[in-house]
Structure formats: C-alpha cells, structure tokens
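User: For my dataset I need records formatted as: sequence, then structure tokens, nothing else. Please produce one.
Assistant:
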Amino acid sequence: MKLLTFMAALVLSCGDPLFGAGKLSGRRAPGFSLPDSNFRQYDLQDYRGKVVVLEIMQTNCPHCRDFAKVLEKVKQRYGDRVAVLAIVNPPDTQATVARYVAETGSTIPILFDCGQVAASYLKATPANPSFDVPHVFLIDQDGMIRNDFGYGPATKAIFEGTALFGEIDRLLGKAAPGKGR
C-alpha cells in the first residue's frame, strides 16, 4: 500500500540531506526517539548491542497484519537478544493503533512518527516522495542497517514465512540450519 504522499512531502520540506538517493542498507541507522500510545519514549540508542527489527507500517495494511504474526514469532524465538519495533505515520492515530492491537493481538511496541523518521529510513526524495508499506529494516548490534525489505513477490517469505529468521540468525552470528560455519 502506498503511504500518503502528503506525509512525505511534509517531511521533505525540512530539506534534510539524509534523503539522498541510494541503497537503504549498509549505512548507520538514523537515530530517533518516538512515543508509543502510552507516551513511553523509545530511543534507538537504547538498543545498542541488540539486533533491531524495525517495521514501518500502517494499521490498515493487510500485509502489515500478516507480518505482525511473524514479528510475534521473532519475539518468542529470540527473546531479549532482538528488539522489535514498529512505526506508524499519519493518518494512523492512537485510536487506529488501539484497534489494530485489539484485532491482531500484537505486543510489538508501535511508535508514532510524523513522517521524518520514516522518510529518513526510506530515503524519500522530492522525486520519490511516497513509499510502500510494510517495510522492515534489520539493524545490527552496532547500529548499522544491514538489510531492508519492502513487501513484494520476491520478499513474501520474509513477511509471511520464516525467511526473516535466517536474516536475524546471520546478524546474531549463527549459521543457518544445514549451512555450517
């Protein structure tokens, strides 16, 4: 689903040079401190030393709802070695997030952004002001984006299957099953 163009245009009016074109992975993860529905702040810096799975989503996105189940399995499988966070942007509100949590049973912290964090991660530009959701970023223990995936036919196994586990295992330094080290 396309995230609303007005949100990206609003953010782009800031003129931040981080919005240049290029790969989304292989760079330092932009820092942020964002609130959840209870006004608890989540600062990316607090997760140094852990792998972070960061999803940019919308509550009305059917693929995001499917991915919520995968993220819950990530929490169960990896415990406190991996932090899982989701970010929503307008038009999502506390009410839409509360409804989403009630309907999906999600326990992932859902953080509220006004667009700046999402645009800096997704490298939105005036030429490309909109982007698809869900989009997931894998951030290593040193705060570097090591991989990112937008939903599509080639990434369905990440968002609906178990391929995300292999990516996380790699970041944690584990050999994938059957691959040896």
